[in-house]
Specification:
- Strands 1-2-3-4-7-8-9-10 form an 8-stranded mixed beta sheet, covered by helices on one side. A two-stranded antiparallel ribbon has the order 5-6.
- It is globular, with a radius of gyration of 19 Å.
- The protein contains 9 helices and 10 strands.
- The longest helix has 15 residues, at 127-141.
- It is an alpha/beta fold.
- A hairpin with a 6-residue loop joins strand 1 and strand 2.
- The chain has 2 domains: 3-53, DNA polymerase, domain 1, CATH 1.10.150.530; 60-256, TIM Barrel (Alpha-Beta Barrel), CATH 3.20.20.70.
Length: 258
Protein backbone atom coordinates (compact mmCIF):
# COMPACT_ATOMS: atom_id res chain seq x y z
CA UNK A 1 0.00 0.00 0.00
CA UNK A 2 1.18 3.52 -0.83
CA UNK A 3 1.58 6.38 1.65
CA UNK A 4 -0.73 8.55 -0.42
CA UNK A 5 -3.68 6.17 0.01
CA UNK A 6 -3.54 5.75 3.79
CA UNK A 7 -6.40 7.01 5.92
CA UNK A 8 -5.75 8.98 9.10
CA UNK A 9 -6.33 5.87 11.21
CA UNK A 10 -3.90 3.86 9.09
CA UNK A 11 -1.29 6.62 9.34
CA UNK A 12 -1.69 6.74 13.10
CA UNK A 13 -1.09 2.99 13.28
CA UNK A 14 1.93 3.17 10.96
CA UNK A 15 3.55 6.01 12.89
CA UNK A 16 2.83 4.35 16.23
CA UNK A 17 4.77 1.34 14.95
CA UNK A 18 7.62 3.77 14.24
CA UNK A 19 7.48 5.01 17.82
CA UNK A 20 5.98 8.39 16.89
CA UNK A 21 3.43 10.39 18.84
CA UNK A 22 -0.12 10.56 17.53
CA UNK A 23 0.04 14.20 16.41
CA UNK A 24 2.66 13.27 13.82
CA UNK A 25 -0.07 11.50 11.84
CA UNK A 26 -1.96 14.77 11.46
CA UNK A 27 1.19 16.50 10.23
CA UNK A 28 1.99 13.77 7.70
CA UNK A 29 -1.61 13.54 6.54
CA UNK A 30 -1.76 17.28 5.89
CA UNK A 31 1.30 17.01 3.67
CA UNK A 32 0.01 13.93 1.86
CA UNK A 33 -3.28 15.65 1.08
CA UNK A 34 -1.23 18.20 -0.86
CA UNK A 35 0.81 15.49 -2.61
CA UNK A 36 4.07 16.48 -0.88
CA UNK A 37 6.86 13.89 -0.74
CA UNK A 38 8.32 12.95 2.68
CA UNK A 39 11.65 14.66 1.97
CA UNK A 40 9.81 17.99 1.75
CA UNK A 41 7.70 17.60 4.92
CA UNK A 42 9.58 20.37 6.67
CA UNK A 43 7.97 20.13 10.12
CA UNK A 44 9.03 16.50 10.61
CA UNK A 45 12.34 15.33 12.10
CA UNK A 46 14.89 14.26 9.51
CA UNK A 47 14.93 10.67 10.79
CA UNK A 48 11.18 10.36 10.32
CA UNK A 49 11.32 11.92 6.86
CA UNK A 50 13.95 9.38 5.87
CA UNK A 51 11.89 6.45 7.17
CA UNK A 52 8.80 7.66 5.33
CA UNK A 53 10.79 8.28 2.15
CA UNK A 54 11.76 4.60 2.12
CA UNK A 55 8.09 3.58 1.79
CA UNK A 56 6.13 3.39 -1.50
CA UNK A 57 4.69 6.83 -2.20
CA UNK A 58 2.79 6.85 -5.50
CA UNK A 59 3.59 10.33 -6.77
CA UNK A 60 1.68 12.02 -9.58
CA UNK A 61 3.53 14.78 -11.42
CA UNK A 62 2.43 17.16 -14.18
CA UNK A 63 4.28 16.23 -17.38
CA UNK A 64 2.50 18.75 -19.60
CA UNK A 65 -0.41 21.20 -19.48
CA UNK A 66 -2.41 23.12 -22.07
CA UNK A 67 -4.69 26.05 -21.23
CA UNK A 68 -7.69 27.02 -23.32
CA UNK A 69 -7.65 30.71 -24.21
CA UNK A 70 -11.43 30.61 -24.53
CA UNK A 71 -12.53 29.54 -21.06
CA UNK A 72 -9.40 28.76 -19.02
CA UNK A 73 -9.89 24.99 -19.10
CA UNK A 74 -6.60 23.24 -18.35
CA UNK A 75 -5.73 19.86 -19.88
CA UNK A 76 -3.10 17.90 -17.97
CA UNK A 77 -0.79 15.06 -18.85
CA UNK A 78 0.21 13.35 -15.60
CA UNK A 79 3.28 11.13 -15.15
CA UNK A 80 3.12 8.24 -12.69
CA UNK A 81 6.11 6.78 -10.85
CA UNK A 82 6.28 3.77 -13.17
CA UNK A 83 6.47 5.98 -16.27
CA UNK A 84 2.86 5.53 -17.35
CA UNK A 85 0.92 8.61 -18.45
CA UNK A 86 -2.69 9.56 -17.76
CA UNK A 87 -4.80 12.62 -18.52
CA UNK A 88 -6.91 14.99 -16.47
CA UNK A 89 -8.80 18.24 -16.95
CA UNK A 90 -9.61 21.26 -14.78
CA UNK A 91 -12.84 22.98 -15.81
CA UNK A 92 -13.80 26.38 -14.42
CA UNK A 93 -17.40 27.24 -13.63
CA UNK A 94 -19.16 29.99 -11.68
CA UNK A 95 -19.96 27.53 -8.90
CA UNK A 96 -16.37 26.24 -8.59
CA UNK A 97 -13.62 24.25 -10.27
CA UNK A 98 -14.21 20.68 -11.44
CA UNK A 99 -11.37 18.18 -11.82
CA UNK A 100 -11.90 15.34 -14.28
CA UNK A 101 -9.56 12.51 -13.27
CA UNK A 102 -8.54 9.09 -14.57
CA UNK A 103 -9.00 5.76 -12.80
CA UNK A 104 -6.95 3.48 -15.06
CA UNK A 105 -4.06 3.64 -17.49
CA UNK A 106 -6.04 2.88 -20.63
CA UNK A 107 -9.30 0.93 -20.60
CA UNK A 108 -10.48 -2.55 -21.58
CA UNK A 109 -14.14 -1.76 -22.26
CA UNK A 110 -13.65 -1.23 -26.01
CA UNK A 111 -16.21 1.56 -26.55
CA UNK A 112 -16.04 2.69 -30.18
CA UNK A 113 -16.16 6.40 -29.35
CA UNK A 114 -13.41 6.43 -26.68
CA UNK A 115 -9.70 6.86 -27.46
CA UNK A 116 -8.52 5.64 -24.04
CA UNK A 117 -9.45 2.06 -24.93
CA UNK A 118 -7.31 1.83 -28.08
CA UNK A 119 -4.38 0.05 -26.40
CA UNK A 120 -6.41 -1.76 -23.75
CA UNK A 121 -5.94 -1.43 -20.01
CA UNK A 122 -2.32 -1.26 -18.89
CA UNK A 123 -3.20 -1.20 -15.20
CA UNK A 124 -5.59 0.25 -12.67
CA UNK A 125 -4.67 3.26 -10.56
CA UNK A 126 -4.52 2.99 -6.79
CA UNK A 127 -6.50 5.42 -4.68
CA UNK A 128 -3.44 7.56 -3.94
CA UNK A 129 -2.87 8.14 -7.65
CA UNK A 130 -6.44 9.39 -8.00
CA UNK A 131 -5.98 11.72 -5.03
CA UNK A 132 -2.61 12.70 -6.49
CA UNK A 133 -4.21 14.07 -9.64
CA UNK A 134 -6.33 16.44 -7.55
CA UNK A 135 -3.33 17.40 -5.41
CA UNK A 136 -1.23 18.11 -8.52
CA UNK A 137 -3.95 20.35 -9.93
CA UNK A 138 -4.25 22.23 -6.65
CA UNK A 139 -0.48 22.77 -6.50
CA UNK A 140 -0.58 24.03 -10.07
CA UNK A 141 -3.38 26.41 -9.10
CA UNK A 142 -1.33 27.71 -6.17
CA UNK A 143 -3.90 26.72 -3.55
CA UNK A 144 -2.61 27.55 -0.04
CA UNK A 145 -2.76 24.90 2.72
CA UNK A 146 -6.32 24.38 3.92
CA UNK A 147 -7.91 25.95 0.83
CA UNK A 148 -9.47 23.97 -2.00
CA UNK A 149 -8.86 24.96 -5.59
CA UNK A 150 -10.89 21.92 -6.66
CA UNK A 151 -14.48 21.87 -5.40
CA UNK A 152 -15.97 19.18 -7.66
CA UNK A 153 -14.62 15.90 -9.03
CA UNK A 154 -15.76 13.72 -11.91
CA UNK A 155 -14.31 10.27 -12.54
CA UNK A 156 -14.58 10.44 -16.32
CA UNK A 157 -10.98 10.39 -17.49
CA UNK A 158 -9.30 7.30 -18.93
CA UNK A 159 -10.53 3.99 -17.59
CA UNK A 160 -13.82 2.51 -16.41
CA UNK A 161 -14.15 3.45 -12.72
CA UNK A 162 -16.23 0.41 -11.78
CA UNK A 163 -13.66 -1.88 -13.40
CA UNK A 164 -11.35 -0.63 -10.63
CA UNK A 165 -13.98 -0.69 -7.93
CA UNK A 166 -11.92 -1.45 -4.81
CA UNK A 167 -9.56 1.44 -5.46
CA UNK A 168 -12.37 3.79 -6.46
CA UNK A 169 -14.27 3.03 -3.25
CA UNK A 170 -11.14 3.73 -1.18
CA UNK A 171 -10.59 6.95 -3.13
CA UNK A 172 -14.16 8.09 -2.46
CA UNK A 173 -13.84 7.41 1.25
CA UNK A 174 -10.56 9.34 1.40
CA UNK A 175 -11.54 12.32 -0.76
CA UNK A 176 -14.75 12.88 1.23
CA UNK A 177 -13.15 12.39 4.68
CA UNK A 178 -13.35 15.37 7.01
CA UNK A 179 -9.64 15.09 7.84
CA UNK A 180 -8.78 14.86 4.13
CA UNK A 181 -9.84 16.90 1.10
CA UNK A 182 -13.40 17.19 2.47
CA UNK A 183 -15.04 17.22 -0.96
CA UNK A 184 -18.76 16.63 -0.53
CA UNK A 185 -20.20 13.44 -2.07
CA UNK A 186 -22.77 15.70 -3.71
CA UNK A 187 -19.93 17.33 -5.64
CA UNK A 188 -18.60 14.04 -7.02
CA UNK A 189 -19.75 12.17 -10.13
CA UNK A 190 -18.68 8.65 -11.08
CA UNK A 191 -19.23 7.49 -14.65
CA UNK A 192 -19.78 3.90 -15.75
CA UNK A 193 -20.43 2.12 -19.02
CA UNK A 194 -22.84 -0.19 -17.19
CA UNK A 195 -21.11 -3.01 -15.31
CA UNK A 196 -24.25 -4.22 -13.54
CA UNK A 197 -22.74 -6.35 -10.70
CA UNK A 198 -20.32 -3.55 -9.86
CA UNK A 199 -23.15 -1.00 -9.97
CA UNK A 200 -24.99 -3.08 -7.39
CA UNK A 201 -21.94 -3.26 -5.13
CA UNK A 202 -21.33 0.46 -5.64
CA UNK A 203 -24.89 1.10 -4.46
CA UNK A 204 -24.22 -0.81 -1.24
CA UNK A 205 -20.75 0.53 -0.41
CA UNK A 206 -20.06 3.94 -1.96
CA UNK A 207 -20.73 7.39 -0.50
CA UNK A 208 -23.85 8.87 -2.05
CA UNK A 209 -22.27 10.51 -5.09
CA UNK A 210 -23.88 11.18 -8.47
CA UNK A 211 -23.79 8.12 -10.72
CA UNK A 212 -23.49 8.80 -14.45
CA UNK A 213 -24.31 6.01 -16.88
CA UNK A 214 -22.90 6.11 -20.41
CA UNK A 215 -25.88 4.93 -22.43
CA UNK A 216 -25.29 6.36 -25.93
CA UNK A 217 -28.00 4.26 -27.61
CA UNK A 218 -31.65 3.44 -26.98
CA UNK A 219 -31.61 -0.14 -28.28
CA UNK A 220 -29.42 -3.15 -27.54
CA UNK A 221 -28.39 -3.77 -31.13
CA UNK A 222 -26.90 -0.30 -31.55
CA UNK A 223 -25.43 -0.17 -28.08
CA UNK A 224 -23.79 -3.59 -28.45
CA UNK A 225 -22.16 -2.40 -31.65
CA UNK A 226 -20.58 0.70 -30.10
CA UNK A 227 -20.24 -0.56 -26.51
CA UNK A 228 -19.24 -4.25 -26.23
CA UNK A 229 -20.16 -4.25 -22.53
CA UNK A 230 -23.81 -4.25 -23.60
CA UNK A 231 -23.47 -7.84 -24.82
CA UNK A 232 -22.92 -8.91 -21.22
CA UNK A 233 -25.14 -6.30 -19.57
CA UNK A 234 -28.00 -5.18 -21.84
CA UNK A 235 -29.87 -1.92 -21.37
CA UNK A 236 -32.70 -3.35 -19.26
CA UNK A 237 -30.30 -4.60 -16.59
CA UNK A 238 -28.35 -1.35 -16.58
CA UNK A 239 -31.57 0.61 -16.08
CA UNK A 240 -32.63 -1.66 -13.21
CA UNK A 241 -29.28 -1.14 -11.50
CA UNK A 242 -29.52 2.62 -12.04
CA UNK A 243 -33.03 2.73 -10.56
CA UNK A 244 -31.75 0.68 -7.63
CA UNK A 245 -29.00 3.22 -7.00
CA UNK A 246 -31.44 6.13 -7.10
CA UNK A 247 -33.88 4.37 -4.77
CA UNK A 248 -31.20 3.37 -2.25
CA UNK A 249 -29.35 6.68 -2.12
CA UNK A 250 -31.89 9.34 -3.03
CA UNK A 251 -29.37 10.65 -5.52
CA UNK A 252 -30.10 11.29 -9.16
CA UNK A 253 -28.60 9.16 -11.90
CA UNK A 254 -27.37 10.96 -15.01
CA UNK A 255 -27.57 9.24 -18.39
CA UNK A 256 -24.90 10.27 -20.90
CA UNK A 257 -26.03 10.17 -24.51
CA UNK A 258 -24.16 11.66 -27.45
Amino acid sequence: MYLTELSMAELEELLAQMGQQRYRARQVHAWLTRGVRPADMTDLPRALRERLAALPFGAVEIADRRVSARDGTVKYLFALEDGNLIEGVLMRYKYGNTACISTQVGCRMGCAFCASTLEGCVRSLHAGEMLGQIAAIERDEGAPPGRRAVTNVVLMGSGEPLDNLDNVLRFLRLVTAQEGMRISPRNISVSTCGLVPQMERFTAEAPHVTLSVSLHAHDDETRSRIMPVNRAYPIAGVLRAARGYAAATGRRVVFEYA
